Structures
1.
Amino acid sequence: MDSAAFDWYTRTCEKLDAIERACFLWGREEGIDRPGRRHLLHAAKGYPDVPTMFDQFLDVWHEKMPPYKWSRETMRRIEFSDQSDYLDFITINLMPLREAARLKLITARVEQHDPNIALFNLLHPIIANRAWDFYVTNHFRQAVETSVTAVFDYIRARTQSQLDGQALVTEVFKLEGAKLILSTLDTESGRSEQKGFINIFVGAYVGIRNPLAHTVINGLTQKEAAEHMVLASLLASKVDKAILVED
């Protein structure tokens, strides 16, 4: 983990959390647009100064991020001059800022582990999310086993099936009554593709996942693990693009 990036992410989230709490306070108060009311709440009740808090957030934000491109409406909103601005900021602006910070942290992690990030760019998001941390910490057996398992979890999620392994594949992709169709079953080439990938899916489970699940020995090189993860990503992409047949 890039400690500097993680520290920045933590401080960014803390600033956003504090702004969110402050916006809730101001947003639920009645009549803050009346003359003197805002000053009274700030001075007597200690309500925080949200515009100042936002400026402090931007100081942290710009340590890692380029200047944010605000819309004209957002530029007006972050002045927090109207009562509606507080809750609007929470519902409209807060989540994109959190997500941008999270993606920045993920990018920093990837660049630290693999400066060329060629492999990461080849991986299906489901595989990267489940197996990448194993791969970059040299747990190659777990990375590959997790990758194949993730594919089958994805098939179950798309089809709501409770089956697993070979039984899952043959039921979901069968030529008559398939739940997932890779391209078409109306042509010979389409049926051949469906049959071929049934064998590949089953082979991945029986020939890759099962042996790895029953051993504690690593037994895989980094290159071999990468090759297996790319294969799992291909299968996950096939599940992505498959046509779901509703019951």
2.
Amino acid sequence: MTATTAAQFTSGRVINFAMTGFTIVVVPIFQSECAPPALRGMISATLQLQIGFGQLVASLVNYGTKGMDGDVSWLVPTGLQLVVPVIILGLLPMLPESPRWLMAKGRKGEALKSMMKLRKKDVPIELLQEEMELLAASNTNQGKGAWKEIFQGVNRRRTIIAITAMFFQQITGQAFVSQYAVIFYQRQKIPNPFGISVIQAVVGLVAIMFTSLVVDSFGRRTDDDQSRPILLTGGSFMALFLFTLGGVGTIHNPNTTQKNTMVASNILFGASYALSWAPISYTILGETATSRLKEKTNNLATSINVITTFVVSFTLPYLLNPPYAALGARVGFIYGSISAISVVVAWLLIPEMKGRSLEEVDKMFEKNIAVSQFRDYQSGGIGGVITREDNMGNGISGKGSVNVIDG
């Protein structure tokens, strides 16, 4: 807010974005370690829910300040961004630490206290103590691995899955809707572009809320009947609406109906994205890597996500506008093709991990279970028991898990 030059303002934006990057690394880890397996998808999706809410607030602020002149036109939107960080700083001391992290540090007593805060009040202390013993017996929290380990053995597969999720979250072109939609509408001479951006944000937020409620029932890639995949269906509709946008973009001097089709395609693409890759990527990020390498794996995957975001945001103006590529709406063909590729990649690489404890997921990767067999794999041992105990501690025993405990 004190910026007097573009360089100073840009520096502030870079620092702000860097802090956002740290958040994206840490929050999915914290959520996945604290959430019971049967609710991990819903809880992990709340990160994107907050992003969607922020986009809605930003759209409303921009809509309300669009008529302002002078420095106040950017000082007000920038200054309002201080409100949420202040609230978060005030609430942080109330957050319990991750029990798994505390166990990894040998702080068993603190881990039990943290677990008591995270679980239902009427859960017997004996059940929580048993879960603590199981976590202690698991090898997933012993020490920290080296960077080279994330590409060795079974960890290579897990790293590729995490990177894939975060890469396709951005390369599919969501920046076109979230960052350049207003400018695009203005160039197409579509009336009330700021109002449309508010509608887009509302639709996107509703879509994220829906996904957060159903992801632990439907799963990341398919539900129990393998008929309503989230990532696969969402990615398919993203491609469909982007191809529709691109097709209309080939029309010279589009009429009102054709312009409305562009707007509808943009909104529906944003909704499909918010239903699928936007929230599910964070869920996958939080549950894929083994605990001892999770920090490094997530750092790498998030770094690639940030780089991809920069590349897409940097190149979009050149793709959209003259005197460069001047593709306009035809950019939908590019990102529609990438969205179609994302469907194939998700089908081939990303397994269904819903309803399983992180320790159980560890064992399944160690056994190199195929993607197609992940959902119905019958697991036993410590990992399976932790899944049961973790869910029982929240009054949701058995929910979301298909594993059979055989000892």
3.
Amino acid sequence: MADTKAKLTLNGDTAVELDVLKGTLGQDVIDIRTLGSKGVFTFDPGFTSTASCESKITFIDGDEGILLHRGFPIDQLATDSNYLEVCYILLNGEKTDSGTV
């Protein structure tokens, strides 16, 4: 569990403690999964402040124009790597030694 908590007060009296999770890259996130059991949900028009999943492969920051796969910028992978090299990076998390793929 997370050591850091966020406290949300509902209707002025019911406090809900939510875990704050550390992002691998980017901002920390508040785990809101328990809100449904309290009879409330979040509303985020445009899905702009909501992470839909956890990924150990991909990082996206649309506002900054950042798309990383395994820590490598997508444009770098597209211009500097061939198909097999990208597959190796996605599967193993690192570049291969030159000429081994």
